[in-house]
Amino acid sequence: MTVLKTSLRSFFSHKGRMLLSGMAVVLSVAFVCGTLVFTATMNTTFDRLFAETASNVMLAPAEDEDRSAFEDNPTSGVPDTVPATVAGEVAAVEGVERVTGTVASTSPVAVDPETNENIGPTTGAPTVVTNWSDVELRSMEIAEGEVPGGPGEVMLDGDTAEDSGLGVGDRLRLITVFGTHDATITGIADFLVTNPGAAIVYTDLATAQEILLGGEEAFTTVYVDSTGAVTDEALRDAVAAVVGADTYKLQTAAEYIEENRDEIGEILSIMEYVLLGFAGVSLLVGIFLIVNTFSMLVAQRTREIGLMRAIGANRRQINRSVLTEALLLGLLGSAAGFAAGIGLAVGLMRLMSLLGMNLSTSDLTVEWSVPVTGLVLGVIVTLLAAYIPARRAGRISPMAALSDAGMPGDVRAGRVRAAVGASLTLAGLAALAGTASAEDAAGGSGLLGLGVVASLVGLILVGPALVGLVVRGIAAVLLRIFGPVGRLAERNALRNPRRTGATASALMIGLALVAGLSVVGSSMVASATQEIDESLGADYIVQTANFLPILPEAAQAVDGVEGLARVTPFTEAEADVTTPDGAAHEVRLGAAPADYATDIQLDVLEGDVADAFADGGISVDDAFAEDEGVGVGDELTVAFADGETATLTIGAVVSGDSAFYPAWYVSQDTLEANVPAEALPLPLMLLATAEDGRQDQARAALDAAMEPFPQMEVRDQSEFKELIQDQVGQLLYMVYGLLALAIVVAILGVVNTLALSVVERTREIGLMRAIGLSRRQLRRMIRLESVAIALFGAVLGLALGLAWGAAGQRLLALEGMPVLEIPWPTLISVFVGAALVGLLAALIPAFRAGRMNILTAIATD
């Protein structure tokens, strides 16, 4: 009981310090709990969507074995189908109440003719064109107008109608594989469940079959509803007995829901792991803050601890007292973090709504494991962080404490720590250097991971030993120009190397990640730019905005552009390749006319690429050729997806180092000879080259030709480079935003350290004020001390980040990105930003120090 009372008294007497330390726990637990609640809510809403829309048995084409509710159509633009006659056969099965056939496709483009804009989502979700049926009434309700009744009539989902400003009576243009179709909007349908973000356009069944299937009487999905007299499994087996167990894909409602839940889970798991990863970074940073807080509180209570030991308290009781304070901090911080996590989850849901996925807070799912996870995580982290200060407090002898003597083992422990840290740092740097000799990215990734962890832990341990060297260097350049005040700030930063090192380490981690990712991102952009300059011979690249296949009508429009010397379509196809000795490989083939070898300068290592585009020729990548012992002149058996099997002769061996262009190629004629016309993949890219001296005219004509197709984008080489730079930049900005959480925690650590340091030096500050130090000089001294600590962390962080980034780039080089680019402007900005962080962190401690009463400060014991 005495221990508890002592702990409570100490805890509440340092409320401000505990609040700052608790913020690290709150932010970290909030990130973890918010991520878990958000992903659970997403799963709940999609489970509800799938459950509402599923029938007892679902029948789909067998060719689409791995299909999910969110997967795009085949690259031919025409979905796989089930003959309409199958629906009649299934309807006769005992136990079947109703059979509904539907047609849906995600390849069409929906355009507002008034604005000539694509009304589909730009966030990755598809535009779905499907027929209206009773199945839709499970998830939709007609809010306005009526269902489409024939050709030229469509109905639009309410979210898309609102976003695009369209309504009943407005015109809509649909562009499909089979041409352009004009229609009038006759109705608006609202979602009764979560809108997954797609734009939905409804037609009648005959129109859907006409514009999506070319008039084929077939369905893409058949919904089979039971009378309830048999189980779903029994009904599925009965249907299979009629239509063939292996002929079509048959699923019960439960199997359908489970499959799509897994698909959504794979997508969400990426987001979940990323968010939890950054939560882990903030937890790691928070540990330093908590360690520093309790170390300084223990140091300030040294005499108090000595008195407690003198009157009979043993080491265990002292240790327990400090850990009890940590337990209180962990409990309160975890509880607040859990509440903040709920708010974070709601915020993420609001963000998803802005991106087109309208998640309802009524589906908010908080599983029992979430608060338990947050509580356990917060408490364990806090106790672990406080253990070392608690152990040191318990080891203080009464006489040493009463005489303010330090711990005899501190110097020896510091040397051991520095030696271990230096060894780990060198081992980590050696592992990072080892990535340069890695033969493949998979093997090098293990060295990279080992190097990152070892160098980080090592630098954290050796950090206090580096304080003297680095801080003196920073002081010589920056602090000493402020005269005596600058020298005082330097000495304060050097006074306790362990404290300075721990405070700076929190900032070091975040800045190391920023620097490392900046190097990787800049190297990716530089590598892409170099490859475009060296290999791209065409003047213009024509693609869809969302990188989906190009619809035939748009491709035909490009072919007729005046001023173009040639237009080269590039297509990709899947195939199974078998070598002469029977080894089988799944590959993705590029297919193009022979002009492609002029538009793209391929790195040919053996043979002539023209032979690969000749009739019956194929090119292979160098790794495949070396591993399988094949070369120019050897024959391969190639089984084209949805097509025939052919024997092709290797005409060239091409370097597989390119990150943008494949090494496997066949000619477009070879692809067309082996794949039926209805299954031929659509081109993914058109390479256009202008006639000599007519670049400007050709570009203007090309832009005009693409005007009716708002999904298409035309880029010259410089614009193509900007696209890559923007994509990498957006990814980095998102990562930097998440890393800001770790930076915030690090700032709290600097604030806490300075605040406790000011309290610790109260009498010293009073004496300095008494001999003439002004309030302004005092505040400047504290600000400069904070800047020195922050820049110390920045120097270590940037150096570590450069090592990480350089090692990461070596792995990118194995994937075709050979250029190492150091983003000096970004790194300089980060360094300057660290100084600003130091200034901001010192504002409150400096202000409080300046307000001290001189006599009261001098009288403080």
UniProtKB/TrEMBL annotation:
Name under which the protein is recorded: FtsX-like permease family protein
Ranges where the ABC3 transporter permease C-terminal domain occurs: 278-398, 738-854
Protein's membrane topology: Multi-pass membrane protein
Keywords associated with the record: Cell membrane, Membrane, Transmembrane, Transmembrane helix
Compartments reported by the entry: Cell membrane
Chief place where the protein resides: membrane
Superkingdom, taxonomy of origin: Bacteria
Domain MacB-like periplasmic core: 23-241, 500-704
Coiled-coil region(s): none
Parts of the chain that traverse the membrane: 273-299, 326-348, 368-390, 416-436, 448-479, 500-520, 731-759, 784-807, 827-847
Family, similarity comment: Belongs to the ABC-4 integral membrane protein family.
Keyword Transmembrane: yes
Record's keyword annotation contains Ribosomal protein: no
